[in-house]
Specification:
The complex is a heterodimer.
Chain A: H1 9-13, H2 17-38, H3 41-55, H4 61-65, E1 68-69, E2 74-75, H5 78-109, H6 114-128, H7 131-145, H8 152-176, H9 180-188, H10 193-222, H11 225-228, H12 255-264, H13 272-302
Antiparallel strand pairs in A: 1-2
Helix pairs in contact in A: 3-13, 5-8, 5-10, 5-12, 6-8, 7-8, 8-10, 9-10, 10-13, 12-13
Chain B: H1 3-8, H2 16-43, H3 47-78, H4 92-100, H5 119-131, H6 133-154, H7 159-164, E1 168-169, E2 177-178, H8 181-212, H9 215-230, H10 233-252, H11 260-284, H12 288-296, H13 301-312, H14 314-330, H15 333-338, H16 356-363, H17 372-404
Antiparallel strand pairs in B: 1-2
Classes of the chains: A mainly alpha, B mainly alpha.
Chain lengths: 305, 405
């Protein structure tokens, strides 16, 4: 066979027309995709900037620590702010242990079986249930059936179930990141399954688990629909400056619902107040998320394996 | 020591953790059981049933008393004390201290071997219970929403009219009509519009972040996308109500900017982060050997993406789109505030619409419990649950499909 294809060095490394065209397409695509991705930063910056700009006249510490006045047309956001903290803390107390344990079960105990598949599917579906359906569930199960009435407790339980998948997902991720060899070494020393989990797996993944818990906080703080009919109320007067002003068997105000109320239901609200409320809500949620991100980066740099 | 032994036996020893865990396990059972029986008493009118229903809580309470005595006895054994010390129950604070906080004797004592590892069985039981809680909650959601709406669903509601009539007049005095066609079309049209915007951007960003980016830039973009996903839906609604409203009035010269377009843009911004993160995972899941093989043949980056990665990851990308759509369908506050809130068959991007979710949110506060209208809202809830359940199921099967390849 004599198939000499002459490739001289010169022709091999000079660009042909096809090469040039490929490179041009490549560059165009790269720039186009970069633009598309960057376009997502713009709304984020725009929204934060716009809200801040509009809210500037009202933003002050006094705004945070004063109650709404004059049928919510003026004043501050103390009552809703404190209500949101109550809702978040109570829901966290319920969903964090259940979520972490559920993730431990799914990652450490469950074997490959149809039952495990169904459990995983249930977690995915729980995450996909619309928030308003969670609200209906909260009304049917906690407010009416369990007899809790519209209360912080009922609203928090609804929020807890809604945010459970957030904790399960990130805890599972954190547990998966612990190498199998760690567990095997521990088992070989005669430790039981639970001892291994408690002494090796959880200490090595605690930061990841905390990230999940923090994300749950941010999610729970922003939700409106699930608490609308289960415990959050349009207006409730409480003492200013008292951290224990709410009782968990009673209703409370919430930041997210307050924003909805004053922007759609109450006429003639003082100009900056809805914007101020939105800034405080977005600000706290983003701060909490930023904390989670910083924690995650810290973990990654400190990883020992 | 197995779980049955810990619950019911009076022999042996258990440690503090076990004691606490058992309290933690029995308390919710007691609470749930009493709530259920209380509701059973108030709901059931048939006398024969009532007498038999009385037996359930009595049996349960007896069982729980037994469990409590057995657990506490074993804890006392652990402290090297005999069971007559159970009388300590009558001194509240000291009892808690003695049972819950004092360490057991070290090594063997007259009641049995050291109790150091006795808590494991109970903790594992607790973990298993939490593990299956997601299943319980999903069934619970369906059950309780169904329960509130079932009465009217099976007695009186014209299902055909419910699904196909656009006439939604739940508060009409003379002729109440519950047709949700306009609401269903509202939900689907605004979701479709949102997907038209979100899918190209989401997939484009996912491709860029996964294939064209330097690692530093990738981290930055991922953080931004995560922050975008964190903004609460009521804030999106508020943006729609203020900023986007004015923009649409200015650009399209429309009388009111609260339209399907407004809601669609808000939903797009909310579902883009989901689409990006799942699509990126799907692209990441394509083995590197595919990329290397294609590049060895002289393909450029874009050719690799276009000819190799997209076909290989198409299931994952489809799942990303589906989950983004599911998110849009279920979204409530943003569409409640931004889409104009009037029941219309949608006629274009600038028409005012109302969605299924927004209808529940807007009207549930104003109906009396047990009312037809109230029950219809719960039936809409069942409809929503079913739609999102099916979409999520399909997405999950599609993802599972990739893993099996």
């Amino acid at each position: 066979m004599n198939t000499d294809i002459q490739v001289s060095p010169e022709t091999m490394f000079t660009e042909t027309e096809i090469d040039r065209q490929k490179r041009r397409i490549e560059n165009v695509v790269r720039i186009f995709l970069l633009l598309m991705t960057s376009l997502m930063i713009i709304p984020l910056l725009l929204i934060i900037g716009y809200l801040l700009y509009k809210a500037l006249p009202v933003l002050s510490l006094e705004f945070l620590f004063a109650n709404p006045k004059d049928n919510m047309r003026a004043g501050g956001i103390w009552a809703p702010f404190l209500g949101t903290i109550y809702l978040v803390v109570v829901s966290l107390l319920v969903s964090a242990p259940i979520g972490v344990f559920a993730a431990v079960y799914l990652n450490e105990y469950a074997r490959e079986s149809w039952f495990t598949r169904i459990t995983n599917l249930a977690v995915v579906n729980l995450a996909g249930v619309p928030s308003i359906v969670h609200a209906l569930f909260g009304v049917g199960a906690f407010v009416l059936f369990a007899g809790l009435g519209e209360s912080i407790l009922a609203a928090s339980l609804t929020l807890a179930i809604m945010t459970l998948p957030v904790i399960i997902a990130s805890t599972t991720e954190a547990l998966k990141a612990v190498p199998m060899s760690f567990r095997e070494a521990c088992w070989n020393l005669g430790a039981t399954r639970w001892q291994t989990i408690r002494r090796i797996v959880i200490p090595n993944s605690i930061s990841g688990i905390l990230t999940g818990v923090i994300l749950q906080v941010s999610r729970a703080a922003g939700e409106t629909a699930p608490i609308m009919f289960t415990g959050a109320v349009f207006y409730k007067a409480i003492a200013e400056g008292n951290l224990f002003a709410y009782n968990i068997t009673e209703q409370c105000m919430a930041l997210s619902l307050h924003l909805f109320t004053i922007s759609t239901q109450v006429p003639d609200v003082t100009e900056g107040i809805p914007y101020g409320t939105a800034v405080v809500l977005v600000g706290s949620v983003l701060l909490v998320n930023a904390a989670a991100i910083v924690l995650r980066i810290y973990v990654r740099t400190r990883k020992k394996w | 020591m197995n779980f049955i032994h810990i619950c019911f036996s009076f022999k042996g020893r258990i440690n503090r953790t076990t004691w606490w865990m058992m309290q933690l396990l029995t308390l919710p059972i007691l609470l749930i059981a009493s709530v259920i029986t209380y509701n059973a008493y108030t709901a059931l009118a048939m006398p024969i049933l009532i007498t038999s229903v009385y037996l359930i809580p009595i049996a349960l309470i007896l069982a729980l008393i037994w469990v409590s005595l057995a657990v506490t006895t074993k804890r006392l054994h652990d402290r090297d004390k005999q069971a007559w010390w159970l009388l300590i129950y009558f001194i509240p604070v000291i009892a808690l201290f003695e049972l819950g906080f004092m360490k057991g004797t070290r090594g063997n004592n007259r009641f049995g071997p050291d109790s150091e590892t006795s808590s494991e069985t109970v903790i594992e039981m607790l973990i298993r219970l939490c593990g299956v809680s997601a299943i319980v909650f999903v069934f619970g959601i369906f059950f309780f929403v169904f329960r509130e709406g079932a009465g009217f669903l099976f007695g009186g509601l014209n299902l055909g009219q419910f699904l196909t009539s656009p006439e939604w007049y739940p508060t009409s005095l003379s002729n109440k009509r519950y047709g949700t066609l306009a609401l269903i079309l509202g939900t689907f049209s605004v979701t479709a519009l949102a997907m038209c915007i979100a899918v190209p951007f989401g997939l484009g960003a996912a491709i860029f972040v996964s294939e064209f980016c330097s690692p530093k830039l990738r981290e930055t973009f991922k953080v931004i996308i995560e922050l975008l996903a964190a903004i609460p839906s009521v804030v999106w609604g508020f943006i729609g109500l203020t900023l986007m409203n004015q923009l649409i009035i200015a650009v399209f010269n429309a009388p009111i900017g609260l339209t399907m377009l407004n809601g669609g843009i808000m939903l797009a911004l909310m579902s883009v982060p989901i689409i990006v993160s799942i699509a990126e995972d799907a692209l990441k899941a394509v083995p590197d050997s595919y990329r290397e093989a294609a590049e060895a043949l002289g393909a450029t980056r874009w050719q690799v993406v276009y000819r190799v990665l997209l076909p290989a990851a198409k299931n994952g990308l489809l799942a990303a789109v589906l989950l983004g759509a599911a998110r849009s369908i279920g979204e409530t506050m943003a569409v409640l505030m931004a889409t104009g809130h009037s029941v219309n068959i949608p006629s274009g991007p600038l028409s005012w619409i109302r969605t299924l979710t927004a209808t529940i949110a807007a009207e549930l506060g104003e109906v009396a419990r047990g009312d037809e209208h109230y029950q219809v809202l719960f039936i809409i809830g069942i409809l929503l649950f079913t739609i999102t359940f099916i979409v999520n199921l399909i997405a999950d099967l599609v993802i599972k499909g990739i893993r099996q390849q």
